[in-house]
């Protein structure tokens, strides 16, 4: 992982998976993956094994986020090491199968890269989600993608939060990367969202092909939004929400939220202000799937990560 | 229903119901109705019995459109007259209960007015849905609402189509009226959509109160969009869709679609044009719930309906 000229030499990335349908009602990834299963020409790259894969076929079939439990929280050590048994929740069974096919998680046998394709009802645009600030391969890939899609943009969300980080489907791979594109309602396929996702995947695969071919990527920096806090809706004693995201905050993902800015609007017309000391950058604002997770939005702070130069390690 | 001065004298409208949660993932109506069940001050009017009501509590509980079958298609004569039995689909049971409580449909005992509150993922804005072009009470109410909310607007969708008209929950009442507001993703509550719905309901109830107090409403006209045709997505032989709503059509509900205009974009990048002879006005464009109904959008034509003056009949 290092060399005299400060170039980090990394293992070749030969096996890549593209997951759609980790959540069965997020239609862009499901549609792309199904399309690529039928005809993979578009995603083929020199020397790469690329596997498009529907993570949760039963949830896709029913066009619902999940059957028994959220697959994208199910890749815990407990679940993955639990004995096979009748009556396990569908997504736990599925997590164990996926771990056998693409993992085992944390092992040298694991797939090199898993892209996991998601949609959000939030106005987040295209967002790459990282689980580590020290994964040079992913940082360089993200940098490459951002440059390649300019003048279009793509935000980078980094989740290393000790409590809020969760056990994703993609975490089975050595280099897990989430791609979240919105706004798109659940069960809907919007052409603009579909095309954004497709373009980002194209550049991501190009990056991997170039890396494997021996290209050296110079040092770079990546602007990221680091997950800080989960903000819940105001609720009554029965747990029912009593306010909505304020119209001044709605759809303003990634824009600064300062102390004193409107945050919620109660049903009886009262504005609730943000009272945190520091400016934050909210994201996943009013995501449909997060009502049940007690989350109206997530706060982040901005940070610049530096990445070493990388190239493929010599054998 | 008539008089010498061309004023139609109509029966007083004493009993009014407001339904939310006919579809359990359409959050504006659900939230408003639950709020009004707890505190009805806002919807009380002189001499009116107003009943806020959750139509499909189990679907609301699960935040899903329906449990077994679409409640808003379930009010058929066959269902309503079927014998009570174990094992009926949940929504059929529920339709029979609602018919007992607010009907019977078509009888003089039925509620006078049912407002049924819906949300759509389509960019339709606020839309009042009528089931009859000859219901003077509803036409006058719609006219009143449109004037009251100006400069905001509200479209009127008229469905008298022999094949495409369906047996709605609200059809139990003498004067059934749907209110559809979007765009709002399923499972999401947006403050702007919530407030639009609330405002329209306010004016609707004001109208009924004025009518019951003896106010005469002069003749008027109402611009409506009349349901013409259901347009499906292009599909392959397995029934899977092969194209998306074209970006030039997406979000353009109520705007004219002319022969030769782009309609769909196939996954391999081909544009499919609208080839109908006449200009139509599409609506319910890319509504999430209509993928399973084989409908990408609905075409309508514009029409102006004239309504007689009305006032309450003398006893
Ligand atoms: Zn997702
Ligand atoms: Zn509905």
From TrEMBL, chains A, B:
It comes from the Eukaryota. The keyword Iron does not apply. Keywords: Cytoplasm, Hydrolase, Metal-binding, Nucleus, Zinc. The active site is at residue 180. Residues 13-208 form the Succinylglutamate desuccinylase/Aspartoacylase catalytic domain. It is found in: Cytoplasm; Nucleus. N-acetyl-L-aspartate binds at residues 65, 180, 290. Its cofactor is Zn(2+). It holds the Pfam family AstE_AspA_hybrid. Residues 221-300 form the AstE/AspA barrel-sandwich hybrid domain. Binds 1 zinc ion per subunit. Its EC number is 3.5.1.15. GO terms for cellular component: cytosol; nucleus. Zn(2+) binds at residues 23, 26, 118. The keyword Cytoplasm applies. One of its GO terms (molecular function) is aspartoacylase activity. Substrate binds at residues 72-73, 166-170. Belongs to the AspA/AstE family. Aspartoacylase subfamily. This is Aspartoacylase. It comes from Onychostoma macrolepis.
């Amino acid at each position: 992982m290092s060399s005299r000229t400060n170039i980090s030499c990394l293992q070749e990335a030969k096996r890549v998976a593209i997951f759609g349908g980790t959540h069965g009602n997020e239609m862009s990834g499901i549609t792309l993956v199904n399309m690529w299963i039928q005809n993979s020409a578009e995603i083929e790259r020199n020397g790469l094994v690329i596997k498009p894969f529907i993570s949760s076929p039963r949830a896709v079939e029913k066009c619902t986020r999940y059957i028994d439990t959220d697959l994208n929280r199910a890749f815990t050590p407990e679940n993955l090491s639990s004995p096979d048994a009748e009556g396990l929740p569908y997504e736990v069974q599925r997590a164990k199968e996926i771990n056998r096919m693409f993992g085992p998680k944390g092992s040298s046998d694991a797939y090199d890269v898993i892209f996991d394709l998601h949609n959000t009802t939030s106005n987040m645009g295209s967002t790459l989600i990282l689980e580590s600030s020290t994964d040079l391969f992913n940082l360089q890939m993200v940098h490459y993608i951002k440059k390649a899609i300019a003048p279009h943009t793509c935000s980078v969300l980094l989740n290393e939060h000790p409590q809020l980080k969760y056990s994703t489907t993609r975490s089975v791979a050595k280099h897990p990367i989430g791609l979240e594109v919105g706004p798109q309602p659940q069960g809907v396929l919007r052409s603009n969202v579909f095309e954004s996702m497709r373009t980002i995947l194209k550049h991501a695969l190009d990056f991997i092909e170039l890396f494997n071919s021996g290209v050296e990527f110079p040092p770079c920096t990546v602007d990221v939004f680091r997950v800080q806090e989960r903000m819940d809706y105001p609720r009554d004693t029965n747990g029912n929400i009593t306010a909505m995201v304020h119209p001044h905050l709605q759809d303003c993902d990634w824009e600064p939220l300062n102390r004193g800015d409107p945050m919620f609007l109660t049903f009886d017309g009262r504005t609730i202000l943000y009272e945190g000391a520091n400016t934050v950058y909210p994201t996943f604002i009013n995501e449909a799937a997060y009502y049940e997770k007690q989350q109206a939005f997530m706060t982040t702070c901005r940070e610049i990560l530096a990445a070493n130069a990388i190239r493929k390690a010599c054998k």
